[in-house]
Amino acid sequence: ELDISIIKAICDYLGLKRKFILSSELLIPQDLRKDDRLIAILNSLSPKPDIYLTGNAARSYLREELFHRNGYRVTWHNYSHPYYHQIMWGTNIFISHLSVLDLLFNHGRYSLKIITGEMKIEKPEGIIVMNADEFRKTKRR
User: Could you say which DSSP state residue 110 is in?
Assistant: First the structure.
């Protein structure tokens, strides 16, 4: 419930129109897993969508042919993480793939423009980009 409240607050702050439907509120069998569950969720929506947008992590289990047989086109979201200014005093490191909260704390209402690519911030020379796991490993040394 806390996560849902935070996501709704972020959407409101950024001016995003949204409709939330919790899968727990839908009449779908609880024993379904992975893409079978996703198909059941899509089938229960009204109006019924025709596209399912998903990330690369689903490539390990998502059976595109199952979606096609059920009338859905799968679109893969190949997200390219934008650079933005982070407050990392005394470092030349940009940590990518953090929570949207990091972007919000650093750029406020401009965050949506950065996410959508409407506002691009060029990475200055000498900045090292690493994800959070890589950064954590450097701190252990």
Answer: G
Q: Find the distance separating the first CA and the last CA of the chain, reported in whole Å.
A: 37
Phi, psi of 75 (to 5 degrees): -120, 130
The 10s digit of each residue's pLDDT in 107-137 is 999 999 999 999 999 999 999 999 888 888 8
Rounded Cα–Cα distance for residues 119 and 48 (Å): 33
Range list of H helices, 32-92: 34-44, 64-69
Residue 47: asked if its preceding bond is cis (omega within 30°), the reply is: yes
Phi, psi of 115 (to 5 degrees): -60, -40
Matching residue, tokens 């019924």: 48
CA 94 to chain centre: 19
How much is the pTM? 0.75
